[in-house]
């Protein structure tokens, strides 16, 4: 069975000797023959059709050990399901901790979601990792703020995978969304996804947010919620532009920079505001089915920016870590499944 695995150390190493890649780092990987995966008692086997690239897992997570099969999500045809919940040959989207950039992947049964006929393989492959993170982040904001209707939400890295979904889902929940994206092209992309305003920095977002809330007849004292995918100075700046009792969710670290936050200044300016080092914990098939249903109903765009055959994985990874891609990148592993043609 062919798979794409990490083969060596990257530019920096952690304290235990495991390599850790940062943004823009050249990654050592190759496509090679590996043993077929052996499922556990609660695991299914999927013949993989397409997979997606996720910045966070590539830059910091999956590259810890040489020999690791890369990838965390995808779409394919179900070949074995011990739970009996879905018949074989069902087209499924999934996440997996065992690696997915392979011709076959072992997947926890409860992480499988049947793909509706109206959703293409490419769109289904793009959704799981980034989409589930954005969905849980928006759900968390909605619960903490007693609904997002009429609330102001700031999204950083808004043209990326998680950010693009967060813009759409927050807007769908009724929020006024301000998107932060570096280039004019990325800002236009965020607007197309539904952002009310798109700017190039958090500082500019403060002015745009105040103007927007003034137009709406509200106070404009700061953002009620933040979904930050960048970290570093973007997170620190976001802490300076929030309203009292705001919730800031740091869901990513794309900048690779440390955040220097003046907590006392935030306490004085926005009493009750809080920061959450957010981690997506719900990777269930049930949650993924929510996203797939939205795509099938044309209520959510899959945000696919580029599709490549998986033989071009090196170029795709370089583009992602070098910030040269917009939206999600999908690699096609095999021919489209019959239901998607």
Automatic annotation (TrEMBL):
Q: Which class of enzymes does this protein belong to?
A: transferase
Q: What is its EC number?
A: 2.3.1.41
Top-level taxon:
Bacteria
Q: Which GO terms describe its cellular component?
A: cytosol
Q: Which species is the source of this protein?
A: Actinomyces viscosus
Give a yes or no for keyword Transmembrane in this entry. Answer: no
Give this protein's Gene Ontology molecular function annotations. 3-oxoacyl-[acyl-carrier-protein] synthase activity; mRNA 3'-UTR AU-rich region binding; NADPH binding; quinone reductase (NADPH) activity
- Mind telling me which InterPro entries this protein's record contains? ADH-like_C (IPR013149), ER (IPR020843), GroES-like_sf (IPR011032), NAD(P)-bd_dom_sf (IPR036291)
Q: Any idea which UniProt keywords this protein has?
A: Acyltransferase, NADP, Oxidoreductase, Transferase
Q: Which gene encodes it?
A: ppsC
Q: What is this protein called?
A: Beta-ketoacyl-acyl-carrier-protein synthase I
Quote the Pfam families the UniProt record gives: ADH_zinc_N
Keyword Acetylation assigned to the entry: answer is no
């Amino acid at each position: 069975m062919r798979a794409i695995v990490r083969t060596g150390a990257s530019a920096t190493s952690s304290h235990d000797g495991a390599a850790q890649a940062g943004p823009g780092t050249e990654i050592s990987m190759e496509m090679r023959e590996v043993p077929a995966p052996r499922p556990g008692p609660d695991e299914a086997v999927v013949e993989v059709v397409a997979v997606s690239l996720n910045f966070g897992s590539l830059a910091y997570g999956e590259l810890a050990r040489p020999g690791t099969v890369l990838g965390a999500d995808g779409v394919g045809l179900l070949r074995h399901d011990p739970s009996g919940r879905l018949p074989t040959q069902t087209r499924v989207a999934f996440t997996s901790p065992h690696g997915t950039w392979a011709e076959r992947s072992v997947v926890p049964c409860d992480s499988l979601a049947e793909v509706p006929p109206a959703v293409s393989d490419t769109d289904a492959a793009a959704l799981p990792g980034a989409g589930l993170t954005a969905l849980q982040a928006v759900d968390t904001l909605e619960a903490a703020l007693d609904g997002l209707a009429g609330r102001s939400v700031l999204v950083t890295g808004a043209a990326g995978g998680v950010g693009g979904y967060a813009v759409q889902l927050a807007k769908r929940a009724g929020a006024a969304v301000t998107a932060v994206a570096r280039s004019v092209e990325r800002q236009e992309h965020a607007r197309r996804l539904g952002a009310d305003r798109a700017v190039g920095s958090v500082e500019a977002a403060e002015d745009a947010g105040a103007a927007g809330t003034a137009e709406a007849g509200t106070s404009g004292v700061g953002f009620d919620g933040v979904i930050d995918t960048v970290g570093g100075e973007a997170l620190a700046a976001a802490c300076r532009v929030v309203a009292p009792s705001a919730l800031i969710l740091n869901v990513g670290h794309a900048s690779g920079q440390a955040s220097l936050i003046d907590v006392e200044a935030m306490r004085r300016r926005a009493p009750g505001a809080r920061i959450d080092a957010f981690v997506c914990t719900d990777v269930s098939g049930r949650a993924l089915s929510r996203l797939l249903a939205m795509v099938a109903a044309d209520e959510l765009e899959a945000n696919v920016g580029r599709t490549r055959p998986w033989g071009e994985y090196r170029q795709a990874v370089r583009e992602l870590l070098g910030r040269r891609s917009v939206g999600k990148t999908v690699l096609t592993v095999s021919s489209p499944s019959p239901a998607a043609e």
